[in-house]
Amino acid sequence: MQQNRARYLIFFQYLGSKYSGVMKSPAHQPAEGVQNHLENAVRRLKPLNEVSVSISSRTDTGVHALCNSAHLDILRKADKPPFAEKVLTEALNFFLKPEPIRITRVYRVASDFHARYRAISRTYVYRLATGVSHHSEMPIMEKDLCWALRDTELDISAMQEAGTILSGTHDFSTFRALSSDTPFKDPVKTMELVQVQPGLSFSQRHFHRDIQFWELSFKSRSFLYRQVRRMTGALVAVGQGKLSVRQIQELLDARDSLAYPQNMAAPSCGLILTNVEYKDLDLMPYTQD
């Protein structure tokens, strides 16, 4: 029997607080991953193939995304044409409705397209809040969306100077957390952007407390495990005077994960994946393979 198979690139966003991360969690684990819910939504479409959603960019427990991406295949009977992109977007969002997960865009792509390997850059933003003496002073709308630094003033110019040290191509071994993948991952990465700048907040504008928001932005083709949180923690330590700019260079030069100071990595709650970028050619209207 002839069948219709189509591959799609989906862009999606989520609030990560309730999930074990973006990747699928095993059945025995109480907290589910975002991927579990995406695959369940696809199954509701009753495809003929086994459902598998291939995520482009891993995020950990508590990390959010305004823009993550994945590819998936949907196989239908010959008398049912492939889903149109808009129809698939609306259908998946209907089945995801109870969850803080949304499909923002869908593209039909070539059968050999791979969401992870075709991505040309990823951008993360880490949000900080200063001017807070107790966690109860944070507006409720910012809950789990930033790192509130209690009783802290930051030397922003020192953080920006330290950021320039991390920019460019380096061995970032010191700034990765050890994992089972460590021996197989090249620690040399190119940071296209390391930026510290004032942040914006709806609650800051309309809720009259002396809270200042800051955004640390990082852009690269790919990142090492927990690299952004460890770079953020080190930059915040510079802003607090706990590390010098020179010590950031020394950490980078050490090329040793164990050289990174204990308990310095930033928590997950302020980290947001804001963009996964592809070549324009990959997002052109689909033509038959």
Automatic annotation (TrEMBL):
The keyword tRNA processing applies. It catalyses: uridine(38/39/40) in tRNA = pseudouridine(38/39/40) in tRNA; a uridine in tRNA = a pseudouridine in tRNA. Residues 12-117, 166-278 form the Pseudouridine synthase I TruA alpha/beta domain. SUPFAM superfamilies: Pseudouridine synthase. GO terms for molecular function: RNA binding; tRNA pseudouridine(38-40) synthase activity. HAMAP family: TruA (MF_00171). This is tRNA pseudouridine synthase. The gene is PUSL1.
